[in-house]
Specification:
Blueprint lengths: L9 H29 L2 H8 L4 H8 L3 H14 L3 E3 L4 E3 L2 H7 L10 H11 L1 H10 L11 H22 L6 H7 L2 E5 L5 H9 L4 E6 L2 H14 L4 E5 L10 E7 L8 H11 E12 L11 H19 L13 H10 L4 E7 L3 E7 L1
Parallel strand pairs: 3-4, 3-6, 4-5, 6-7
Antiparallel strand pairs: 1-2, 7-9, 8-9
Helix pairs in contact: 1-4, 1-6, 3-4, 6-8, 8-10, 12-14
């Protein structure tokens, strides 16, 4: 509530200004994180540090003066460490796991690529605010596609095989023996290929309505030499095949214009004993419960990516990235499913299971 007297509380003002300085620092440093990844600065520093700016520049074939400023920002951000006595910089193992190793389950660098796309697409989103129209997934800057793939891949690598699939009733055993799996909204196919590598006796089909993503997924599958995975361009309400033992939707149901229609289609394609695994951003059912750091990130992407994507499609239900389990249950059960439960969760995801 506003101050009824209209008096300015200087202590609260200074406190808020301090928060804003932190937010501005984080936002302006984001582009430097991307530069550090592209030029291999984090990787070289983690593998060979402590290093001076000159030494790091030499190892990465970059200009020392730019590297000095980059390192100074990274040290001020707390992303790298600075040894003042020796004028050298280094990374702890924990920070290297977050920034330097793309195969680390804790790698978060991909998120910054996605954020870059939001700034590039700002005019489109601003116009959508004025018109109420949507912005389709494919209309976004390409940084979004690679960023989303980079951001979610570590989460899937850390959780999908180890905990999410085992949390589904009897699914792991079916896949070990040999089953059919449809991974809908697969993007670059990291989730599809991870399952295909783990369960060689099963057949996996990755579907996405974004042709460039499917093209990239096919390329990655060929590089890995996978013969039990197929990628096809198809919408969630139209993907082909039948009698799947498992259908998976990873962080995509809320982006769809007609998620209830997608649920009905899945219901018709799923074996009577099959399971539908829906991985969605973690959220509570009320707005006030989502007003936290995780909710802040998800509401930002929901405003700029998820809601516009849904509004660009038929129906345009616009669930948003913080729909909550109750609302998701309503959508899924409206598609004909009678059993629905939360099978597992992480600080960032809810893993939901639906059955006939």
């Amino acid at each position: 509530m506003s101050n009824p007297t209209g008096a300015l509380d200087e202590n609260k003002l200074h406190e808020f200004m301090g928060k804003m300085v932190g937010d501005l620092g984080a936002a302006s440093s984001g582009v430097l994180v991307i530069i550090g990844q592209k030029l291999g600065l984090y990787r070289a520093l983690s593998e060979h540090g402590p290093l001076s700016a000159e030494n790091l520049a030499e190892r990465t074939a970059t200009a020392p003066r730019y590297v000095q400023e980059w390192l100074s920002n990274q040290a001020a951000s707390g992303y790298v460490e600075y040894d003042a006595e020796n004028s050298q910089f280094y990374m702890t193992q924990e920070k290297a796991a977050v920034f330097a190793d793309e195969e680390s389950p804790f790698y978060m660098g991909g998120g910054f690529y996605s954020i870059a796309s939001l700034f590039a697409d700002e005019p489109k989103i601003t116009n959508a605010f004025r018109t109420g129209e949507g912005v389709s997934w494919g209309a976004h800057d390409s940084c979004l596609f690679c960023g989303v793939a980079k951001f979610f891949k570590p989460t899937y690598k850390m959780n999908l095989i180890q905990s999410w699939i085992p949390a589904l009733d009897g699914v792991q055993e079916k896949l070990q023996k040999g089953g059919r799996v449809a991974d809908v909204g697969c993007g670059y196919g990291h989730s599809t290929m991870l399952m295909a590598e783990t369960f060689p006796n099963s057949q996996f089909f990755g579907f996405d309505f974004h042709q460039p993503s499917i093209d990239h997924a096919k390329l990655l599958a060929r590089e890995k030499g996978l013969t039990n995975v197929t990628f096809v361009t198809a919408k969630a309400k139209e993907f082909p095949g039948e009698s799947y033992d498992l259908v998976t939707f990873f962080d995509c149901l809320h982006d769809m214009g007609d998620p209830a229609g997608a649920a009905r289609h899945v219901h018709g394609k799923l074996h009577k004993d099959g399971a539908w695994m829906i991985v969605e951003p973690f959220s509570h059912d009320s707005l006030e419960a989502n007003l936290n750091p995780v909710g802040r990130v998800y509401y930002a992407f929901s405003t700029t990516v998820c809601t516009p994507s849904s509004l660009s499609q038929e129906v345009g239900l616009a669930l948003g990235a913080q729909a909550g389990e109750k609302r998701l249950r309503e959508v899924v059960t409206s598609g004909g499913f009678t059993r629905f439960r939360r099978a597992a969760e992480t600080p960032f995801n809810m893993i939901l299971e639906a059955r006939h």
